[in-house]
Amino acid sequence: MIRLPQWMRRTLLVTAVANVGVAAMFLPAAHSVRALAGFPEAPPFYLDLAGLFILLFGLGYLWMGIINRGDRLFIAISAVGKLSFFALTVHLWSAGDLPVRVPVLGAGDLVFATLFAAWLVTARAVAAPAPGVAPTVPV
């Protein structure tokens, strides 16, 4: 895990709060909140499943923000997931299956995906070479 710069730590903590809030929106009883946001209804199993994944990632962001360390694989998967969610909402809106407010609300995930990608590009892992293995040198 890599020590986080202050901006990335704050990003993870804000993302954690956002994810926990959105996870609550997927509780089956939160029908009116989903309707206000423009999300279609679904059977409780799928609402719970989506909410669970959103909550678990939110807890991962919270933990990394608290310990001030970032895991490159987790952040990379998160960036792809957030970008994919935004792209999916834009696609479904352009097909007429979602109101425009869904991709507008999902634009927050585009912002977080961009910030995650920026951290991935700038973060450098500091790791000692394995015993008995010479460090690789570009030729």
Structure overview:
- The protein is mainly alpha-helical and 139 residues long.
- The chain has one domain.
- Helix content is 69%, strand content 3%.
- The chain has five helices and two strands.
- A two-stranded antiparallel ribbon has the order 1-2.
- Helix 4 (72-94) packs antiparallel against helix 5.
- The mean pLDDT is 91.
How do you describe this structure in short?
With 139 residues, the protein is an all-alpha fold. Helix content is 69%, strand content 3%.
Strand proportion, as a percent range, falls in under 5%
Mean pLDDT score, rounded? 91
Topology pattern, helix = H, strand = E: EHHHEHH
* Molecular shape: elongated
- Topology, number of strands: 2
Strand order of the largest sheet: 1-2
Low-pLDDT sequence parts: none
Distance between the termini: 28 Å
Number of helices: 5
Helix content: 55-70%
The secondary structure category is mainly alpha
User: What does the largest sheet look like?
Assistant: 2 strands, antiparallel
Number of domains: 1
What is the radius of gyration? 18 Å
Layout of helices and strands, plus pairs?
Blueprint: E1 2-3, H1 6-25, H2 31-37, H3 44-67, E2 69-70, H4 72-94, H5 101-122
Antiparallel strand pairs: 1-2
Helix pairs in contact: 1-3, 4-5
